[in-house]
Amino acid sequence: MTALTDGRVLMERDPEFGIARITLNNPDRRNSYDAAMRDQLAAYLDDAACDDDVKVVLLRGAGGDFSAGADMRNAYGWYGEGTGKDGTGNDGAGKDGGGPGAATSNGARPRRPSQRRRLTVDRRTFDFYHEFLGFPKATVAEVRGLALGGGFEMALMADIAVVGRDAKLGMPATRFLGPALGSLHVFFHRLGPVLARRMLLTGDSISGAAVEHLGVFTEVVDDGDVEKRAEWWARKVSRMPADGIVMAKEAFRLIEQLQAYQGEEVLSYLFHAYGTNLSFEDGEFNFVKERARHGVKRAFELRDEHFEIPEP
């Protein structure tokens, strides 16, 4: 395997079958990713796109989870350091994403990220998902365990997705960033408007088994069968002519852009940038504030407690 400098993303090429296998290798964090991991994943995808011997990319996660999405230890920290007028060097939530109200090292109060910074950063971030959605080679996702946030989006964007019945799917970050999060066109197009609204307005996560009858994914199988079925699909697709795959992918992309995704490349980052600029009322759950007070683990527990409403 060819490895990233810190080993958190791996890629191996299989010239016999024309398959590039890319592994998210951050199992201690359930394969959640930060900007460096996402950039390395993008670099490997670019390599595969330019390699005439690669027909299929098989994306998977190490340790039993596909991906828990963006690493929320750095929530809001993805906007980085700015040139805040408070003299702290921050125009955002602070380097650690402490959020509005968290003091900096010199005791000053950091500014909220400006809308211009949000838009600039989010446009760059969503470029990765747009490139993956329109990737010129066939993509196969091997989905077990957690597929949350960006991990869920990648599973939905893959050409072929094999999902375990016990896999946990969802966008839980909507519970502290709001429902206008992520690639809304993809959710509505792939999930359908009813399920998309339900998941985004509640932040509920669902099992692979819950969507098996809907045909959202190529296959939903027992968790123990996901790996071999994903490999089978990758090899099956790799029998197609290489030029035919690339031409088909461009045709697929055009059809989806005309029928479903018009405006998505702007709206996705626009909604995310505005959505991260929430003001929280009394009684509403503020993840970044609770994380600063109690730490990430306890903040997640408090989030789940806040949103747990017993069914009648």
Note down, in words, how this protein is organized.
With 312 residues, this protein is an alpha/beta fold. It has two domains: 2-76 and 113-278, 2-enoyl-CoA Hydratase, Chain A, domain 1 (Alpha-Beta Complex), CATH 3.90.226.10; 283-312. Helices cover 41% and strands 14% of the residues. The protein has helices at 35-50, 115-133, 150-157, 174-177, 184-191, 193-202, 226-237, 242-259, 264-275, 287-294, 296-307, and strands spanning 2-3, 9-14, 19-24, 56-61, 138-143, 146-148, 160-164, 168-170, 205-207, 219-221. A seven-stranded mixed β-sheet has the order 1-2-3-4-5-7-10, with helices on both faces. The radius of gyration is 20 Å and the shape is globular.
What's the short story on this structure?
The protein is an alpha/beta fold and 312 residues long. 41% of the residues lie in helices and 14% in strands. The radius of gyration is 20 Å and the shape is globular.
> How large is the share of residues in beta strands?
5-15%
Give the number of helices. Answer: 11
How far from one another are the termini?
A: 52 Å
Given helix and strand content, the structural type is alpha/beta
Report strand order across the widest sheet: 1-2-3-4-5-7-10
CATH top level of the largest domain is Alpha Beta
What's the average pLDDT?
87
The counted number of beta strands is: 10
Main beta-sheet strand count, sense and barrel state: 7 strands, mixed
CATH level-3 fold name of the largest domain: 2-enoyl-CoA Hydratase, Chain A, domain 1
Helix content: 40-55%
Number of domains: 2
Any guess at the CATH architecture of the largest domain?
Alpha-Beta Complex
- Written as H for each helix and E for each strand, in order along the chain, the element string is EEEHEHEEHEEHHHEEHHHHH
Q: Specify the overall morphology.
A: globular
CATH homologous superfamily name of the largest domain? Answer: 2-enoyl-CoA Hydratase, Chain A, domain 1
Rg calculated over all Cα atoms: 20 Å
Unreliably modeled segments: 82-105
